[in-house]
């Protein structure tokens, strides 16, 4: 049996962490990188081979990636889990957190069933480098179509969010800059002081984020948390059937080269979600799926990973770090930017890989 080197583990581990959240297919990259590098990499890192230590490595990477996601969304998951538990206790679904918990569960069911039944067949048949490159091109076309043919509801949802935030920011800025009229009270008098205090009061709701004179990473993270709560309230305006249909799209990610987050985002946008909300739902939905996939294959890590535990641990740590940095970047990115650059990347890399693999 071949064994992985630390260099292989470092490169593949970090690439896995990045590409699992970027809509460019981590499995496609896991298949293509060894084939493109060639030599011992192609033999050491063959995902389709039986009893492959590389398969055990990917298991460890999935668990680490899920942990990276949980580290970023831990506040959100505490709310969601609490919502699930209280809905069980009360036998009712009334709050946004309760509904979101059940939406995520329902959306996970199709890919969970498909993964258990078809994962091995898909991995063996589609885990070939040329096939992965072809599906990477298809993934790029899906992402492009998702942007090019976005529904009117999705575009309107983007515009409404932008307008709400602009209004809130303007209201907050007006509250901060407003001053009492000349002659309304003597300067320095209690009345004037009271007027100034009233003028800078932070408005309730979204605008509070903009009015508070905070700085630093903690303040930025608090803003992200608040924006996430607002997004969750918007998501829970959708039906459970919407969640099921969006979640079903994840089944395509069993094909090496198709991105789980990418197809989930496209399905969400076709369903009328804003790009930002589609991305958030995709990231939240990915966490239990990725973690479950890792746990399900944990026995392979023990069976086939013997002699490679060192590289597996190192690569997994880098994968977790890469996942955390990726989701932190992408959550902000998709508030204002599109899937198009990732679509171009997938098509270019996919076509380039096909040519290289066929002509070398």
Which value, in Å, is the CA radius of gyration?
A: 24 Å
Order of helices and strands: HHHHHHHHHHHHHHHH
Query: Which of globular, elongated, flat, extended, rod-shaped describes the shape?
Result: globular
The overall pLDDT, averaged over residues, is 84
- Number of separate structural domains: 1
Strand content: under 5%
Helix content: over 70%
Number of strands: 0
Distance between the terminal alpha carbons, to the nearest Å? 26 Å
SSE-based structural type? mainly alpha
Count of helices? Answer: 16
**Residue windows where pLDDT falls under 50 for at least 5 positions:** 182-213
Major sheet summary line: none
Helices and strands, with pairings:
Elements: H1 6-21, H2 26-37, H3 40-44, H4 53-90, H5 96-126, H6 129-148, H7 152-177, H8 190-199, H9 208-211, H10 217-235, H11 240-248, H12 260-270, H13 275-296, H14 298-304, H15 309-336, H16 340-359
Give a quick precis of the structure:
The protein has 360 residues and is mainly α.
Q: Which terms summarize this structure?
A:
360 residues, mainly alpha, 0% strand
Task: Characterize the structure shown.
This protein is mainly α and about 350 residues long. The protein has one domain. Helices cover about 75% and strands about 0% of the residues. It is built from 16 helices and no strands. The protein has helices at about 5-20, 25-35, 40-45, 55-90, 95-125, 130-150, 150-175, 190-200, 210, 215-235, 240-250, 260-270, 275-295, 300-305, 310-335, 340-360. The relative contact order is 0.21.
């Amino acid at each position: 049996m071949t064994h992985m080197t630390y260099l292989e583990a470092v490169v593949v581990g970090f690439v896995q962490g990045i590409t699992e959240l970027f809509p460019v297919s981590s499995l496609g990259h896991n298949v293509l990188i060894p084939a493109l590098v060639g030599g011992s990499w192609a033999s050491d890192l063959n995902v389709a081979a039986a009893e492959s230590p590389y398969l055990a490595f990917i298991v460890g990477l999935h668990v680490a990636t899920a942990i990276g996601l949980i580290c970023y969304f831990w506040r959100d998951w505490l709310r969601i889990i609490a919502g699930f538990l209280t809905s069980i206790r009360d036998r009712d679904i009334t709050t946004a957190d309760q509904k979101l918990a059940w939406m995520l569960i329902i959306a996970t069911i199709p890919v969970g069933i498909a993964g258990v039944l078809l994962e091995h067949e898909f991995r063996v048949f589609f885990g070939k480098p040329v096939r992965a490159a072809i599906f990477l091109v298809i993934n790029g076309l899906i992402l492009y179509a998702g942007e090019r043919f976005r529904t009117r509801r999705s575009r309107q949802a983007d515009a409404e969010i932008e307008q709400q935030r602009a209004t809130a920011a303007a209201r907050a800025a007006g509250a901060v800059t407003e001053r009492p009229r000349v002659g309304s009270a003597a300067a320095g008098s209690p009345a004037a002081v009271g007027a100034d205090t009233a003028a800078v009061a932070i408005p309730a709701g979204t605008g509070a984020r903009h009015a508070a004179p905070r700085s630093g990473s903690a303040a930025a993270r608090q803003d992200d948390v608040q924006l996430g709560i607002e997004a969750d309230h918007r998501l829970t305006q959708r039906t459970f059937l919407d969640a099921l249909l969006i979640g079903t799209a994840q089944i395509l990610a069993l094909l090496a080269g198709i991105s789980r987050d990418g197809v989930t985002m496209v399905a969400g946008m076709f369903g009328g979600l804003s790009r930002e909300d589609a991305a958030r739902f995709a990231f939240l939905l990915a966490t239990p799926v990725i973690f479950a996939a890792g746990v399900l294959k944990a026995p392979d890590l023990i069976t086939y990973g013997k002699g490679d535990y060192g590289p597996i641990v190192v690569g997994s740590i880098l994968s977790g770090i890469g996942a955390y940095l990726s989701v932190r970047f992408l959550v902000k990115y998709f508030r204002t930017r599109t899937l198009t650059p990732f679509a171009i990347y997938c098509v270019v890399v996919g076509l380039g890989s096909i040519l290289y693999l066929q002509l070398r």
